[in-house]
Amino acid sequence: MNKRENGLDLLRIIAAYLVVSLHVCTFERNLVSDLGELNFNYHYFMFIRQITTSAVIVFIMLSGAFVLKASSTKDIGTFYKKTWKKLGIPTVIFSFFYWLFNAFVYWKTGIYGLAYGIEDLTYPQALLFQGISFLKGIPSEHMWYMYTLIGLYLMAPFVALGKEKTGEAGFKKIAFIVCIWGIIDALVNPSSLFWGIGYCAQLLGVFMMGYVVHEWALERKGKNGLGCFLIVLATVITAVEYIIFLAIRDNSTLFSYVTPMAPYNLILVIASLVYVAGFTIIDIKKDFGYLSLLTFWVYLLHPAIMMVLFLIEEAAFKVPYLEIGNSSPFLIGTGNSILVYVLSFVFGHVIEKCSSGKK
């Protein structure tokens, strides 16, 4: 699509900040639950976990919306070359970087010792542990998305060709079935190999539904009242999922099936679809194209910037690495999120300019 969609560019920028917040606020849902008391800290961390999960789903849907729309996707050879250049090479480079860098940080801060109960863990041992994660597609916690996205892109030409054969009406039905099928399969058959066909297939329906909803919303482009309503509705749906979580948080079995914190959380998938529809429909005049482009680098860079910042704060304020921001999540956690977010854009801009200069 030649014309930029300012609403979706803005959605990418917002989603990128939410993902940064997810990683800066280090507590997982189960760790927050250990706090016990439903105080401000609890709800703040839970809000971050809640809204950022939708942001990850949004990224997958936006990829599907544009990749399956482009006529060039059906040219398998050309599409794969483009994918290797734009996704494959950065993924390989950053994977090796994070393998070495994360192993060093986790070794230095004692994270591996806490995780595996091994005292006096050496750096070579840390490299081994991180290398095993590397083979699973997670040289760093955030890199799973890159491996899964590459898997989805490998499937994309065949999906696009299938869409051409079935027609739009048939494709909508297939996308819905594949989406529900993938969500159910992920709940009963979770995968830990993020570049494997099983995990990519589980998210293929989400990828396809991004295209379906985007096309539906394009037919209603400019109906700003409807767009704003859908954005509010998506937020309400997200809040409902959180209320359900609070109601069942002590039932681990029910919790794992009803509100899993993963991209195949059914309620948050619905909320994300509504977000994509709302931001597609609303007519925004401001051009966010360049900042939207930089979100790719923001995603790749922000964990490294975050870890360096945490190491500096650990040394400066004598606060354990894993506890930074936890005592005052709203002020310190939010402040660090904004700082990491801005610095990621700055370094991303430098990389983009250097890359453009080489062409």
Summed up:
The protein is an all-alpha fold. It has helices at 6-24, 29-33, 40-67, 76-109, 111-116, 123-135, 144-188, 197-218, 224-248, 252-258, 266-281, 289-317, 329-358.
**SSE sequence, one letter per element:** HHHHHHHHHHHHH
pLDDT averaged over residues: 87
Proportion in β-strands: under 5%
| Number of helical regions | 13
Stretches where pLDDT is under 50 for at least 5 consecutive residues are none
Q: What is the general shape?
A: globular
Largest sheet: none
DSSP E strands, number: 0
* Secondary-structure-derived class: mainly alpha
Radius of gyration: 20 Å
Span between N and C termini? 23 Å
Q: How much helicity do the residues have? A: over 70%
Question: If you had to describe this structure to a student in words, what would you say it looks like?
Answer:
- The chain is an all-alpha fold.
- It has helices spanning 6-24, 29-33, 40-67, 76-109, 111-116, 123-135, 144-188, 197-218, 224-248, 252-258, 266-281, 289-317, 329-358.
- Helix 3 packs across helix 7 (144-188), helix 3 (40-67) crosses helix 9 and helix 4 runs parallel beside helix 12 (289-317).
- It is globular.
